[in-house]
# Entry
Amino acid sequence: MPKPCRATRGLPRLATLLACVAFACTLPATARAVLIDFESPAIAGTVADIPGDSLAAQGIAFRTVRLSGTVGIGAVVTLAPIADGLRIYRDASAISGRQGAGPAQGGGYNDLLMRFDRPLRSLSLTSDDMVETPNPLRLIALAATETTDRFRVVDFVEAFDDAIAAPGNLLALAPSASFDFALFEVRNQQEGFDDLSFAFAAVDPSPGTPPTGPVPGPTNPRPPPGMDVPAPSSLSVLAGLLGGLAIMGGREAARRRRSPAALSPAA
# Structure
């Protein structure tokens, strides 16, 4: 039997490696988690309002609004715009570090709308560390509708602002459906929070669809470049790899047939 050509001895290993790569192309990309502790930008005094796109590099924009309507899963609520931005607090109510966040004042207590540049799979925050009489808070996952400033409730969680330790001061959401917007609703007085954490939903390599519905306010970031460019399908990738292996194998076989060594018996 003729000895295998040295160049072809590694083909089975190469085929295994390329098959693993092709299989990896069919798996969703790992979701990226983000933690915002509101220590940056640092403010000079005890309170300051900052623009809503100040943390856009981390995939989020803020807008102070006021909710009207009844909150329930599947219900549609209205968010009247109040101010383009949020308020930063620098005091002992912060959970980690020295700064926390909340809605801007704008003539009374308000709510804070968060818009994410990609769909989320989970979201959490910690209410401020302040000893006070209990007042209700909500964290609400939202989806935009075709009507400006109107949103559909995907999920929500409730807590009270007098809690100063976990789990009472933690508001967390992980609905089965992904969502692009969230609301920190304060209900009946000005409130704050810290340690905002969220995880983007896994990215499917199939062609993506950007979030639908109106974008509330001019500071909402556009989807990252390339989000609407279709990626190659996993079947195409696999077909290309297998085709390349077939061509390589055919060329090596033809070369062996032409080689005098291939006609000699093995030593």
